[in-house]
């Protein structure tokens, strides 16, 4: 008796058809819902004699599977036919697509890369999670040198016996310079843009990460004059042809001699204003001649080659160009702020 019913339902299900999604749903309810035909069979199943339960059970399962497959197939057919519906009006005006904007740091980074690319510098890239060897040791930071405190960062793994094996978030992109120098012989002329990390309290003027662009040029007979001329050309392209530069002596472990570079304040033209703290100058980058120790550590003969390096913070240059008062705004993802740069290329 129950087997006849199963056969009858199977025949019905194999021939199901439907003309709308409502009809398909009605069929699903009729056969597969809790109050449907197949659930009713399950109730009858209790009365099947024990020695036939296995045979009948298998058949009910097959029936249920067939119903699921058939109804899914109807759904698919229906969706496909809906997609090819010719009643769609292809001439209708589309909804306007909202164009995104470039992030101000990307705009300025690209501008810096453009200027140095035109002077023959090529892009170099490296990992943000680095070892101590490339971030500090090869950059002439001795293991116990206090200069390491200038760049406190975040440690991922600390080695018990060998400080050069510590894994950390890079505190400057100089690690990329180290990686290029150890695999390439001069002439080397690269710029390394990228994100760097420092263990700093987050305020309007400092963050635990920021962006740098560093440059490195190594060849025979490279002098401080070359460095000064390249940086003057950069400053004039970036901030206007009347921009003046001045170099002040400074200290970095990886350069000797080292300098900080100021540009004439482009807001007051050097007259003195609140922005430049009435000095007429604003600091934009650090630079110097590559310390011979760095060249030797990276496998370059310092008796034959010399070079210069410089590094600037992209946030700092962006602040100078757009007077963004709070550094934190760059990473808050507030679209009201980001949309201010809509027209900037
Ligand atoms: Zn000024």
UniProtKB/TrEMBL annotation:
InterPro entries: aa-tRNA-synth_II, aa-tRNA-synth_II/BPL/LPL, Phe-tRNA-synth_IIc_asu, Phe-tRNA_ligase_II_N, Phe_tRNA_ligase_alpha1_bac, Phenylalanyl-tRNA_Synthase, tRNA-bd_arm. CDD domains: PheRS_alpha_core. It comes from the Bacteria. Keywords: Aminoacyl-tRNA synthetase, ATP-binding, Cytoplasm, Ligase, Magnesium, Metal-binding, Nucleotide-binding, Protein biosynthesis. Mg(2+) binds at residue 256. Its main location: cytoplasm. GO terms for molecular function: phenylalanine-tRNA ligase activity. Binds 2 magnesium ions per tetramer. Pfam families: Phe_tRNA-synt_N, tRNA-synt_2d. It catalyses: tRNA(Phe) + L-phenylalanine + ATP = L-phenylalanyl-tRNA(Phe) + AMP + diphosphate + H(+). It is found in: Cytoplasm. Its cofactor is Mg(2+). Residues 108-340 form the Aminoacyl-transfer RNA synthetases class-II family profile domain. Gene3D superfamilies: Bira Bifunctional Protein, Domain 2. Its EC number is 6.1.1.20. Coiled coil: none annotated. Belongs to the class-II aminoacyl-tRNA synthetase family. Phe-tRNA synthetase alpha subunit type 1 subfamily. HAMAP family: Phe_tRNA_synth_alpha1. Tetramer of two alpha and two beta subunits. This is Phenylalanine--tRNA ligase alpha subunit. It comes from Xylanibacter muris. The gene is pheS.
């Amino acid at each position: 008796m129950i087997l006849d019913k199963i056969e009858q339902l199977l025949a019905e299900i194999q021939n199901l058809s439907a003309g709308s999604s409502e009809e398909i749903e009605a069929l699903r309810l009729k056969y597969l819902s809790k109050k449907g035909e197949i659930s009713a069979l399950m109730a009858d199943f209790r009365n099947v004699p024990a020695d036939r339960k296995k045979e009948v059970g298998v058949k009910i399962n097959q029936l249920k599977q067939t119903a699921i497959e058939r109804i899914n197939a109807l759904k698919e057919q229906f969706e496909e036919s809906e997609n090819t519906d010719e009643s769609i009006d292809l001439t209708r005006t589309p909804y306007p697509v909202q164009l995104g904007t470039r992030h101000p740091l990307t705009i300025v980074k690209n501008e810096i890369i453009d200027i140095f690319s035109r002077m023959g510098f090529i892009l170099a890239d490296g990992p943000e999670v680095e070892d101590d060897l490339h971030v500090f040791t090869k950059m002439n930071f001795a293991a116990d040198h206090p200069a390491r405190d200038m760049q406190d960062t975040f440690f991922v793994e600390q080695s018990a016996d060998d400080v050069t094996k510590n894994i950390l978030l890079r505190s400057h992109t100089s690690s990329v310079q180290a990686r290029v120098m150890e695999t390439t012989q001069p002439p080397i002329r690269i710029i390394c843009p990228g994100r760097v990390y420092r263990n700093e309290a987050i305020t309007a003027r400092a963050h635990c990460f920021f962006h740098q662009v560093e440059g490195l040029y190594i060849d025979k007979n490279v002098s401080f004059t070359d460095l000064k001329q390249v940086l003057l050309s950069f400053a004039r392209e970036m901030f206007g042809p009347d921009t003046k530069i001045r170099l002040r002596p400074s200290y970095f472990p990886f350069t000797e001699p080292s300098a900080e570079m100021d540009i004439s304040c482009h807001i007051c033209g050097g007259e003195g204003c609140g922005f430049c703290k009435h000095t007429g100058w604003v600091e934009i980058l650090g630079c110097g001649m590559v310390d011979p120790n760095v060249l030797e550590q990276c496998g370059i003969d310092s008796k034959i080659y010399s070079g210069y390096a410089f590094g600037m913070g992209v946030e700092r240059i962006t602040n100078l160009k757009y007077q963004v008062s709070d550094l934190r705004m760059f990473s808050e993802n507030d679209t009201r702020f980001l949309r201010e740069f809509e027209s900037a290329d």
